[in-house]
Write the structure tokens for this entry.
Amino acid sequence: MDEKNFEPKIVAFCCHYCAYASADLAGSMRLQYPPNVRIIRTPCTGRLEVEYYMKAFENGADGVLVAGCLEGGCHFIEGNLFAKKRVKSIQKILEECGLEKERLQMINNSAAMAKNLVDAINLMISMVKQLGPSPVNKKIGIGY
Amino acid sequence: MIVAQRKSIPEIHNIIKEHENVIVLGCGTCVTVCLAGGEREVSIISSALRIAAKKAGTKVKINELTIERQCDNVFIEGAVEEIKKNDAILSLGCGAGVQAIAERYPNIPVYAGLDTAFLGILESRGVWTEKCAQCGECLLSDFGGICPITRCAKHMLNGPCGGSREDRCEIKVNQPCAWQLIYKRLKDIGELDKIKKIHPLKDWSKSLNGGSRTIIREDHRI
């Protein structure tokens, strides 16, 4: 894959109670977002262990977006706050590995905020495009 | 419990980069509890090393395994076949675990992936503090169960030093003065007279002196 036509592969972990529902709403509202993003439904962002993020990057994700409930609005009270801390610590590990920390982002989104989710996905894709392909893909020559 | 923390990924990668097959070996005991070298940390560190290796263009292949206890040969034996397939071992055990593995495999390089820090307890979630310096001759009964060697910044046996402010240590302001704690504890348990006892110089020959210490229990030997 040459870097000019680079189409990033983004894994989006979406909480069942908010972001996943808002992605559904985006569909009902006919809001379009690029097909670069692969949405994975999770019962709560607090359920996402560090290993999940690391495996995503190890297997070639150019970026990972975590979309949890608004702070204070978690179905499990504080799962999204755990996720927030975890994301920060993983960003540090990514930097140690030689990846840019911006490749992992977390947003807070309610089930009604379809537009917000689409904007976040678009922003994430344009940012990862600027960063270029993940070095994991570059070295072993696997394209998108 | 032994408390340790992970070395940085670049440091570990630098140690193992010359090898082709490296097994990251976790330990299911103390380092699992202090979230440094258990099965989950093996998975995280392995993923991080694979990413770092791809980024740096090194050909090292990372394998994963966690055994129940690295400092016990009984548990090491069970992993022999898996370990033999590799040309280096990155142990996520404490210093004792790393050395036990190295003794068992004289022909395979064994590297430490953790910095073993101290003997301590879980203070609150994600916070561990040192409680014992393993000095070889326990004096806790004289000090109401609070160790001045570990917890006093000056290791004073006849304290306090006079530098503490309120109940805080003058060297580490966030740390309570161990002698303040000892005074309060002895007072609470009605043994305040013990604080008047003058302790002679401690016999440090029972501590880090003359190589590694050995304990032999003849009644348990075969």
